[in-house]
Write a structure and sequence with these properties.
Order of helices and strands: HHEEEEEHHEEEEEEEEEEH
Number of helices: 5
CATH architecture: Alpha-Beta Complex
Largest sheet: 5 strands, antiparallel
Oligomer: single chain
Radius of gyration: 17 Å
CATH class: Alpha Beta
CATH superfamily: Creatinase/methionine aminopeptidase superfamily
Structural class: alpha+beta
Bound molecules: cobalt (II) ion
Number of domains: 1
Distance between the termini: 44 Å
Helix content: 25-40%
Number of strands: 15
Length: 258
């Protein structure tokens, strides 16, 4: 069952999604060598609660934290712990919140101090692929057009698209139909209609697309140990241009000052 959202619902999803962006920006202020990922998680949890909202991941299928924090070859769903960030790492911060009955979901991958140019390129191309996917999230196109745009772009640089995890519909639930793969065939899949709200979240690997789950039951990492990047926006399908409901504005203001 696919739930198309009313304008009132979209407004609520936008409020939640904007709070996610502000939360990740608070976390970004603290990204530096030596900080423990559990400390970043506490900062996010406190900020969300101060804003009278609920961390969406904590307790979801027994997930134990507010953020997913995934370093280097960890793709997604890394559990915050006593691990310290170190110079040269990349770190994906993924966050969801629930506010007024609706979810928002967004993720951003950061550099810790100075990072090798080849890895910075992976981050840039992954972020660009997210926006190319979003450009295809318009009425009349199909789900496969989103995946095709992402896949063909990143593969042109020799990168690969993770297949085992996908984007998703979002609204009264964190995960709704449809699944939104970051790979696909042009013109294939479900037709997109106004009011479809989805989280698009390319997970792009420097090497092989293959991933494995660690014994903690959550962390997904690359099979070859090469780095992976992850960016995510919550968006709504519109007629001529998708509307992005989450925002990287506050995050990128913080990055500029780092
Ligand atoms: Co998501």
């Amino acid at each position: 069952m696919i739930f198309y959202k009313t304008e009132e619902e979209i407004e609520k999803i936008k409020k939640s999604s904007l709070l996610v962006g502000k939360t990740i920006a608070e976390v970004a202020k603290n990204i530096k060598p030596g900080i423990k990922t559990i400390t970043l998680d506490r900062i996010a949890e406190e900020f969300i609660k101060d804003n009278k909202s609920v961390p969406a991941f904590k307790g979801y299928r027994k997930y134990p934290a507010t953020l997913c924090i995934s370093i280097n070859d960890k793709v997604v769903h890394g559990i915050p712990d006593n691990t310290e960030l170190k110079e040269g790492d990349i770190v994906s911060i993924d966050c969801g919140v629930l506010k007024n009955g609706y979810f928002g979901d967004s993720a951003y991958t950061f550099c810790v101090g100075e990072v090798k140019p080849a890895i910075i390129d992976l981050l840039q191309k992954t972020k660009e692929s997210l926006y190319l996917g979003i450009e295809n999230a318009i009425v009349g196109k199909r789900l496969g057009d989103i995946g095709f745009a992402i896949q063909s772009y990143v593969q042109s640089f020799g990168y690969s698209v993770v297949r085992d995890l996908v984007g998703h519909g979002i609204g009264k639930n964190l995960h709704e139909k449809p699944e939104v793969p970051n790979y696909g065939k042009r013109g294939s899949g479900m037709k997109l209609s106004e009011g479809l709200v989805i989280a698009i979240e390319p997970m792009i690997n420097m090497g092989s697309y293959e991933v494995v789950q660690e014994s903690d039951g959550w962390t997904i990492r690359t099979i070859d140990g090469l780095p992976s990047a992850h960016f995510e926006h919550t968006i709504v399908v519109r007629k001529n241009k998708a509307e992005i409901l989450s925002s990287f504005k506050e995050i990128e203001e913080v990055i500029k000052k780092l």
